[in-house]
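Morning - pyridoxal-5'-phosphate inputs below, output right after.
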Amino acid sequence: MTLAASLSPFPRHSLLFGATPLHALPRFENAIREKIGHCPQLYIKRDDMTGLAGGGNKTRKLEFLIGDALARGADTIVTAGALQSNHARQTAAAAAHAGLKCTLLLFDTVPHKEPAYRQSGNLLLDHLLGADVRVAPEGIDAAEFFGLTLTELSEAGHTPYVVPVGGSNPIGSLGYVAAFEEIAQQKTAMGLTFDRIVHGSSSFGTQAGLTVGGHLLSSDTKMTGINVYKPHTPKVVAELDTHIAELATHLNIPVPSHHTAELLGGFLGDGYGVPTEEMRAAVELLAQTEGILLDPVYTGKAMAGLLGLIANGQIDADETVLFLHTGGYPGLFAYVDALSA
Ligand SMILES: Cc1ncc(COP(=O)(O)O)c(C=O)c1O
């Protein structure tokens, strides 16, 4: 079975330049062996290289979200995120590519107070990409801010289309169903089998898409999400199950009775977007051994999670592990003090 047939009914606006690279990390592996004493075989999937304005996992989701918006005759994309949202930056770029307007509702809620956080990184790029950037006034909640904005846009004669936070509804998650097949084809061509895929998880669209893609292809590769967003509670873990079930329903297949996804906590530190020492060490190690840039909010903490799981034996030295690089490096420029101190 190919997943392309399952995805063909859904409108899609092409944004990727092709398959993103998947390759080994020999110098990184050696450095881990020197530090920890053992290391699984490590590969990386470069979704930081999708090609759209700094890249990242949102490109894949936006192919389907923008496709849906165009099919519905929308002229303005509206979405929300944190001030340094990668999702907002990618949405602004995807809208520009499709000839649509884009309004970004940004929330200044991350307790990271250095000046660059409010000027540079993704926020700077949002402006360059031509988005109508609106920072939420203090005290307003997301539903109210969305409501006011949608009314204003409609009254001005626009047809707005709402992309949810992180692009993580079943439509956006289709992008990672497709990504699973891309990974499956690459691993077959390289003669590899992955025991697990590790990546940062926050709004669950990436993990739900990979999990359902794996289910459709009868894969037993484990999907290990590192929680980088909310304090780790059973309720948060259950949200992942809901996303998987809703995506299966959207694809018109039975909801899987069991699945290969797990969401692991312990690597968030003091909160979303708050730097940790382990994040910084992970960012530096990958940069200095392989010349690959992670980000401070998602992939840096996800890689710190992978290193932690290797060190504590939760990931075995005889596994073959694929780290999914979900992008985000423009965020580095918003953490100048934290990363250069
Ligand atoms: C760089 C990066 N990695 C990972 C994620 C998490 O992806 P998801 O929201 O699909 O869980 C995000 C979400 O914004 C992101 O920007």
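Note: The radius of gyration is 19 Å.

O.
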